[in-house]
């Protein structure tokens, strides 16, 4: 978004945020010089980013029962906390159009500070039973294991356990990751190669009580061109565009920065407390998107049981929109005994069937320390 240079309040606010973030950076050091747990929560992992090829890139896959699909990297963009690779694709229609099915699909790979999350749209692609899951997670070491809640097409929630089972380095580094469902015999396996992405996928399917493996493998990675994917909805040869800040989204920009009231009582946090509180704000907002988008109630781990935030969560119409954070800026922090107050500037993309908006907020968070853990108690708009 564009800030007007003639607005002294905006200039002062931006200067404050900039100085604060520089202070955090100088305290914590560079990403390469600290361990993963103290890495700046607002940065995405360069180590994971190296697994995905840059533009232009097109993949051709072939698999079980003459299955084929092609996909192309459409766009790459960054937010404050992640880097997103958007992929458009098409499955080969073996029925020559007689099935009437939509063979187009879309994937995205979102790179965070410790994981790559795959999201997909489209029913004909031979891929995960889950529209959203973590496909690999730091550290990139054999035996690294993580667990997450996933939702299938029937809205059934399961726990999926991912494990890095093998690392090959003969011809470029390849990570083999296995994912197992705690409630069934369902599994997935991916081979992810540095600067190539997923080069092999396998999963189990079930028929008449028996499980069978199906798979596809990379036939060719074209690094010289982006293949054009037809959009049946638009009737053109242009790639389907997602809402973004420049095009479809309506930016709801405040005319003036609100005059943030100084937090009167308390003292500035020390270096460790600043890191913990900043990480809490970022982690809470990450959990908020999972709650709003996927009805993931893991967000309750970040809030007190008796606060306004808890009440908001139980009143909010989760599942009716898609939210993502374009900006999270933390400025003033003050701690008074076991209560912290924090000024936070946020820009949120809100997508509904009717429209896409970019919403700007200035919040005052109230955070309580319970059992030596900081938790969100409430947040109000300034």
Q: Any descriptors?
A:
2 domains, 4 helices, five-stranded mixed beta sheet, 382 residues, twelve-stranded antiparallel beta sheet, elongated, YmcC-like fold, Nuclear Transport Factor 2, Chain: A, disordered N terminus, mainly beta
Describe what you observe in this structure.
The protein folds into two domains: about 160 residues, Nuclear Transport Factor 2, Chain: A; about 180 residues, YmcC-like fold (Beta Barrel). By secondary structure, the chain is mostly beta strands. It is elongated and about 70 Å long. A twelve-stranded antiparallel sheet has the order 6-5-4-3-2-1-12-11-10-9-8-7, with no helix packed on it. Strands 13, 14, 15, 16 and 17 form a five-stranded mixed sheet that branches. It contains four helices and 17 strands. Helices cover about 15% and strands about 40% of the residues.
Mind sketching the topology for me?
Blueprint: H1 8-28, H2 46-49, E1 58-63, E2 67-78, E3 83-91, E4 104-111, E5 115-121, E6 132-137, E7 145-151, E8 157-168, E9 174-181, E10 187-193, E11 197-207, E12 210-222, E13 250-252, H3 271-294, H4 308-315, E14 322-336, E15 339-351, E16 356-370, E17 373-381
Parallel strand pairs: 13-16
Antiparallel strand pairs: 1-2, 1-12, 2-3, 3-4, 4-5, 5-6, 7-8, 8-9, 9-10, 10-11, 11-12, 14-15, 15-16, 16-17
